[in-house]
Amino acid sequence: MMQSRFLFFCVFLVLAGSIFSLIAYLSESPLMVFLSCFLCLLIVASGLFIRGNDIFSPLTWFSITYFGYVVGGVYYSFGEANYGKFLILTETPLEVVSGYMVVSLLWAITCYFMFCFGYGIFSVRSSFSAKIGAADLFMRPEFSRVAHCLIPVLLIIGFFYWVYVAYEAAGGILGLVVKFQAFRHLIADKNISTLPYHLYYAGIFLWLLVLVKDSGKIGFLFILLSFVGLVINLTQGRIMLSITFVLAQMFFVGLAMGDRAKGVKLVFNICLLGSVAVFVYFLRILSNYYFIGSDAAVISGGVDFFRDFFDKMVGSGNVADLQQLLIIFRTWSWDEPLFGVTYFDWIGNSFGHLVGVEPSSIGLTIKEIYFPVSSGAPTPGAIGEAFVNFSVLGPFFMMFVGAFFALLYRSVKRSGSYLLLMIYSIFLARFVLLYPKVDSTMMSNFFWGVAPFLMIVFGIYILLLGARRLAKNPVTTSAVF
Predict the structure, then answer these.
(1) pTM over 0.85, yes/no
(2) What distance in Å separates the CA atoms of residue 98 and residue 333, rounded to the nearest whole number?
(3) How far apart are CA 257 and CA 140, in angstroms?
(4) What are the residues whose beta carbons fall under 8 Å from the beta carbon of 182, sequence distance 6 or more?
(5) Helices (H), strands (E): how many in the chain?
(6) b (16+ CB within 10 A) / e for 113-135
(7) 382 closest CA partner among 439, 321, 339
(8) Cα dihedral 116/120/124/127 (nearest 10)
(9) Is 320 helix (H, G, I), strand (E, B) or coil?
(10) In this structure, are residues 394 and 380 in contact, taking their beta carbons and an 8 Å threshold?
(11) Which of 106, 371, 436, 474 might form a disulfide with 367, Cβ 3.0–4.6 angstroms?
């Protein structure tokens, strides 16, 4: 196995070296291209040679998003024609951009190396095997019976609330689907909450947990209703929320059943999901034009998308982006670290609206300094946030993050608990995957993905625990009177 991996890496090294050398010859900044090549090789080597790494590990999915820095290094190496909108809004002098980009790539390489170092210390080869504890009510038939009664209720409430929102906001389901990118504008003046949507998502996660736990068979009905959940997510205009909803289910099934054949099938499904994501992003642009009522713009928007794909994906900050790091380095001084303050922003962002507290993050701070109200906020990424909080010690914090991820993955696998496996799968999809691109505020994304599900699960647990104790100590009439 190790020999085949080494052979693959050697072949990849030759091919990558050739391709990046050609790009460097054509680019305006060969140094950026070679640094991007080095980071690319580092990412591939970590995936191949760090023990215990597999398709479901935090290292794999962290690295997939982190690869955006490689793409950005190549893209921006062709000069100012490719510089993104955020650099334009910050009015960064063009003559200093290339130098900052080189520094940003060096920072990205250093932080990733330290992340892998921390991860490698605690990563071990292991597999998931379900275990039934003496008091594990989650594994008993009673839990499944109660869950099967509750699941239809959750799905029906969530679905019909979505139908209600569709008619209130857009005059019907079709209108909501067509105008999905304008969802926030459609509900802005109607005081409509999407909180009941989480009942549907929780019902899907609970159903999947029971199916895998009891039989390991997933039927057409579940796949159909899971797809409906995907559509419900999409109509909020949040593409990644939809993708992570499906990914969390795929991760759970793959980890719980995990044989090699299912792993290959999972890779295929993930590639297919990625293709769908690109297509939906295209529809998102057309939805914007349709909302403003311009048929001509719909047509030209479609053409422009395919013409300017990399500008949309890289220059607009839709991947882990070097221009965001550049802005971080120009805005925060290395000798004024925040010492971890921003790692608590997700708590205020999750519950602050209940007490009138405005959201806060590094990206919102940058927006207030540089950008107009109509612009979206940039995302500093995990390593940008590490610099803001710990300055030049940021790579050591990333080493700690890597070690934590490895320990978490190892502990979940050894636990043998389907419940912990589901929580981990949601964490992997809704936090780990997005953390390199955004920042720690993605913990809010994870919280709202897992909290409703856990509340329902523990509600069933308490009900069953109470029923068990009542059966052991029945209350008689004489005891009462």
Answers:
(1) yes
(2) 19
(3) 19
(4) 237, 287, 288, 291
(5) 23, 0
(6) bbbbbbbbebbeeeebeeeeeee
(7) 439
(8) 0
(9) coil
(10) no
(11) 371
